[in-house]
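Please, structure for the following, as tokens.
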Amino acid sequence: MSAKRMRIVFLGMTVTSSWGNGHATTYRALVKGLARRGHDILFLERDVPEFAAHRDQRFPPNGRTVLYRDLGDLSARATREVSDADLVVVGSCVPEGVAVGEWVVRTAHGVKAFYDLDTPVTIAKLERGDEEYLSRKLVPEYDLYLSFAGGPILQRLERDFRAVRAVPLYCSVDPDLYAPLDEPETWDLGYLGTYTPDRATTLAHLLVEPARRWPRGRFVVAGTQFPPTPEWPSNIERREHVAPTDHAEFYSRQRYTLNVTRSEMAENGYAPSVRLFQAAACGTPVISDWWVGLDTFFRPGSEILVAGGPIDTLALIRDVPEADRRQIAEAARRRVLSAHTAEIRAQELEEYVRPTVSSETDASASASAAS
């Protein structure tokens, strides 16, 4: 239980549907961590057809979830909740996110934060004038800029975009859902992730080509929005979607799993994917492409393996001794459980909010005394 119970409102892209996105599992874990620490949570989600057709948690078990139709419906249903909250968090990729953010800034009396689960993508959009869900004008209106990417990008947010305070709030894992299972090893290497053109290139380099060179190997690729892939070799099994409830089983059936980083994330660095933490928590050793800052989350060679091409991948999945493979997996799991669980993130969020709340309280007290 935290020292002070807070009323927290999230306005995020989705918490009800994990279809084609990593936001839902990230929010679910964080909300659960916050609820366990005694906070009252309300999650507001725009009811859009894409997620309505693929909801795997219509009523998430932690906190309350309300679906709204449009901005008018949001204002009618949530003005009082947002006004009275101790903390209001607007997430990236929220439909009409700029209008939503402007409404929150006008309405909320507590701490106002922006949670960017796509920071390098967001910055690239702002630089080319794309204000789909965040505007340059709105950035300094938030008291906190919570970023799933760390490193130098935080200073850039404060210097170039006038963020009041930019801090890392990395994705996390729910250890109740992600843990090793006693499953038969079905695949030598697997991958789970939504299709994007930039990741497809790396996936082809680090998984498809190794599968082609090793016909006896067993491979699997799971994820939505992939185009038809008739050129893939027959030893790659294809799955359209794996629900979060099946993630632990899916990872536990892989000898190794592949982490592929989007180009903007790799270029900016310090942006771990939630899949990386989830796979490691399941005791599956991870092979990753390289990105700056990777070694601040896992020790290469002893907690994670790095591949630069198909020859590297094949050497790792075929030649690493079994005892070493298991040792790497166990070390990565220990690292995740000690530093990257949802409850740890919840505690970090509390620590970020506390000085802002204290300064606002002091300002209110001073104003009262002066009057």
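The chain has 13 helices and 13 strands. The CA atoms of residues 120 and 264 lie 6 Å apart.
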